[in-house]
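User: Fold both of these, please.

Assistant: Here is the first one.
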Amino acid sequence: MSEWDYDDRPELPPEAGNKDVLEFDPDDGWLKSAPKELQIEAMRLWFYARFEDPANCTPYDSGEGGYQFIFGGPYDPNDEIQERFSEVVDYKVMEELIEDLYQECGDEWASANHGGWDYDDIYSMLPEDRSDPFRMLNVRLGQIEETISDVSPSGFVTQLLHSATITALESYLWDTTAYWVTHDRQLLRSFVKANTDFANEKFKLSDVFLVMDDLEKKVIEYLQAFIWHRLDKAKPLLEITLKIKFPDISEFIQEINIRHDIVHRGGRNKEGRPVRVSVEDVRRVSKLVGEFAKSMEAEIERVFPYAPIPSKF
């Protein structure tokens, strides 16, 4: 299998609007007469640009009743989609997307705009040592193994654990990239120069110092919104930024397709049949993630070898 089957969404034409900006907003004139599948995709991109799964970075406190929506919300897709598009798109079309978003994350979404954070808020989430991403990945994989060992997983639980292994991989890639772009100015520069979302932005010369002061924070916010399980997109991003050879991703394609069916299709495939995942499958994918990370750590070490600490004597 050579294609990422889970990404079966249509491509929007240029007349739909500027997709290179972080907060995409479709052109209403085009949207009114666009085919239904393109209307849904345009509204979906608009929604994803503004709202996210609270599990991404919303603080959770069970003692306080769950997620603490410190950036606003929770936001209901039904309210947000209708408020923006009710005068442009037929409700039945909106309803199809709204139901899909409910399946994905329910009716309580968080704001994707973290502009109110100060630097202390942002950097409290970042790895402090180059070994942290790999260490934290092993902790996550260990928690998945403990869950398997402590309970008798049902089909539903094994589906969730399978999805959790892919999430662990996503977190590792985010942690690794975030660490290096915040600890090496040359890598931050490489990232910005190679990324079209930044390279195409326009600003006045008089704002150049404001842009530079805010650049690192903006990159971090971009990385938070990046879809890390799109390994075909993460691969060139990390290869250009870190100058590494990205580990082989071919064995992940099928697993990420399965993860997509679990998360976005309610545990069923395109044909409507239940996705079957065994405990052995979870352990196999967990091992696959661990081996991938080991290969990547070896590449990082090759490009950025540990510098020995000078002796005081």
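And the second sequence with its predicted structure:
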Amino acid sequence: MKEKKLDVYELSVVLPCLNEELSIGICIEKIKKVFEDEKILGEIIVVDNGSTDKSVDIVKTKYSYVRLFVEPEKGYGSALRRGIKEAQGKYIIMGDADDTYDYLEIPKFMNYLRQGYDLVIGTRFKGKILPGAMSWSHRYVGNPILSGILRLFFGGKISDSHCGIRGFSKVAYEKMGLHTTGMEFASEMVIHSLKKNLKIIEVPITYYPRKGVSKLESFKDAWRHLRFMLIYSPGYVFILPGSIIFIVSFLLTINLVRGDIYFGGRNWGMHVLVFSSMFTLLGWQLLNLGLSAKSFVQSIFLEQGKIFNKIVKFVNLERAMIFGLTLILLGLVIIFYIFYVWWKNNFGPLTEVKTAILALTFIIMGLQTIFTAFLTSMLQIKYR
């Protein structure tokens, strides 16, 4: 059995670096000053992610006490994951190397980490944003919207989910189980911490104008954050819209089968029924996909959704198959009824098109249910 590596330092500060020759030295000197003033036994780790300027040379020649690593895989998350992996501290503080974050504020983070908080996140919005530090679109549109979506989807009260300076314990980081390599790493850290009920707190900070050229690609990076949150939220992507579409469409279908609906000064019948039936099937398919996706997310990321777990235990493969077969049988009964009506009319003219659409809808729903039950069961397979 592999022995667990003991912490060598109390704190490791990890700085991802990409062409930061104007600011990397300033950040290192501030961190070193905090170590000396606060008597912190710590280390500084710089992870270069493909710099083409003098950043690496500056670190090598002026700051020999800094641990320098080169991460060939591109991406903000890749650089941070490498640095955190190499860190030997009990606690880790990560932040950008462009001097936008004041590392003299490290004691604020250490205070809460020593109290037992798992994740301490800086918040620029509850602190101070200096002129020129953040564009209008990021300050009033991008960051608030993305942080709001994260709160809506995953709960919590994080006001600045994309703040780059944050501290956490090595133990908490291992519980998070992070995988992403790009800018969405910041969102993933918050989401996993919330889902695994880690102890989180925000710390107001001051945000400064960066030195050098920004590496942010506003729309691309925003989409990566949003994309990750959506992929991780089957309830909002599949189950919620699926439920709304299915309920509305199914009720409309049933009413139209019984007879035309008078609305807006005219009768609505066959054409609307065709569309309502299609949307009923769409809604049912989204619900089925949501069940499979939710099952996958919970099994892979080891989430503990009590309500969903109870549903899954009750709606197992066998019960779902029985329900699907019942829907198919219901559709077949309706088809037999149509055949009976036709027989009663001596196989003459047949006007049961609406009833036939309803029968087809039930049969397809039944087939969707059965196949989804098998898919969900496959996604729940666990191997040691």
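The chain has a mean pLDDT of 90.
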